[in-house]
Amino acid sequence: MAAVNMVQALNMALRQEMEKNTSVTVMGEDVGRAGGVFRVTEGLFERFGGERVIDTPLSEAGIAGAAIGMAVCGLLPVAEIQFMGFIYGAFDQIINHAARLRNRSRGRFSCPIVIRTPYGAGIKALEIHSESTEALFAHIPGIKVVVPSGPYNAKGLLVSAIRDPDPVIFLEPTRLYRMIKEEVPEEPYSIPLGRGRKVKEGKALTLISWGSMLQRALKAAEGFSFDTDVIDLMSLSPWDEEMVLSSVKKTGRAVIVQEAPKTCGFASEVAATIAEEAIAYLRGPVLRVTAYDVVLPFSKLEEYYMPSIERIKNKIEEAMRY
Fold first, then answer.
1. CATH domain 2-184 topology
2. For domain 197-320, which architecture applies?
3. Global pTM?
4. Contact yes or no for 126/179 (Cβ under 8 A)
5. Catalytic residue positions?
6. Can you tell me the distance from the alpha carbon of 16 to that of 64, in angstroms, rounded to the nearest whole number?
7. How far is 113 from 148, CA to CA, in rounded Å?
């Protein structure tokens, strides 16, 4: 078992699923000969050829539309959008077609596509390269939304996404691509979609996050005299309500950390569910640590924009004062 980063883990998942099933096809801008902008698809073109690793024109709507057509005809396309900020051009195809196909055809057709895209700030990229708008997709029925937080779960979740019969938006935290390494088995394995994981066990407070914010949440939880339950959601649609509610009923306090702006972010959905289902167990209000409700700034202000370890600690302390 080798220690690999997220790029290597994702590449391993793609390669193994393509070896296992000839219907799996990779497509997107520069995914072929160039190996992708972050090199996630490196080596796949040489191994599987241009009919299964397809360099597309620069058209996000075209990429998504072609993937939907391929899926209806029996293929399992894994489409890459180079950055999440570019995905909005494909909204019509994703929301009006991919998400509705099963319902529209009364179950005669499904749409087993995976749309992979790097997302989030932290690498000092240019404008619209660092978006964190996962809540837009989590709001749409018929779409599954997945956010890995490390190499091990990135591989297992991507395998499950490829095998899933419905469309999956697979969001890869850009700043985690090469930040951390974990031991990842060479043999294939899957992690079920819709399940969270308990990363740290505690009784005083429930700390909930996903994607790259998990690392900051874990660091923020250190140094206190009390133990904190730390939950990594991994899937946002569907999400593991049972795990979150069970934890909150135990601890009585909850802090949610998201990289996205505050208003209408996915943290709001988690907070509302806790309020509806576990209010009798709460010892204080559910608190959120988020980015600010502004357009994502250029690189000099990027770290100030994202939730910092210090801001998370402050919210934990605020929750514990109740």
1. Rossmann fold (3.40.50)
2. 3-Layer(aba) Sandwich (3.40)
3. 0.96
4. no
5. 129
6. 23
7. 18
